[in-house]
Design brief:
Elements: E1 2-10, H1 15-30, H2 34-54, E2 66-74, E3 77-83, H3 107-114, E4 117-122, E5 129-136
Antiparallel strand pairs: 1-2, 2-3, 3-5, 4-5
């Protein structure tokens, strides 16, 4: 079983719950365990929130009003990519944990805790950032679309 979808979203706060609900609905329909679905939806929300807040190009006249979310449920794994057009991101910054009482800066650490594998890097050739993460799926017993 393989399912994938891709969204081109405006860099607005209202786009974050839209992406999250689509992911949750897809995984519920496929029969993914609710705990795994929840972990991935929180990680997706954090990645989208970062794209909304930091994903704009700082150059005058630049077109950076959107970001892209792509999700793949392929076999036993779900992979999610969030791509923006911002000024870029140094992957070393992801390793720097925020203070426990900080109001900002915990999203990437949270993604790393919730996913099995995380990659944060520059978008090839165009600037911007790609946050990709994956997680091994668990299935409900009554899952209609269980991977074979």
């Amino acid at each position: 079983m393989s399912i994938w979808w891709s969204l081109h979203l405006r860099r607005e706060a209202a786009s974050v719950p839209l992406a999250r609900r689509l992911l949750l609905g897809t995984m519920e329909t496929a029969g993914v365990d609710p705990d795994v679905s929840y972990d991935l939806s929180v990680a997706l929300s954090e990645a989208c929130a970062n794209a909304v807040e930091h994903g704009g190009d700082t150059a005058p006249g630049a077109s950076s009003e959107a970001y892209r979310v792509t999700a793949y449920l392929d076999g036993e794994k779900c992979r999610i990519e969030v791509t923006d057009s911002g000024p870029g991101f140094c992957g070393a910054e992801a390793a720097r944990p925020a203070r426990a009482d900080a109001e900002h800066g915990r999203g990437l650490c949270l993604i790393q805790e919730l996913a099995d594998h995380v990659h944060i890097g520059a978008k090839p050739g165009l600037g911007g950032t790609v946050v990709s993460f994956d997680k091994i799926l668990k299935w409900r017993e009554d899952a209609p679309l269980v991977a074979v």
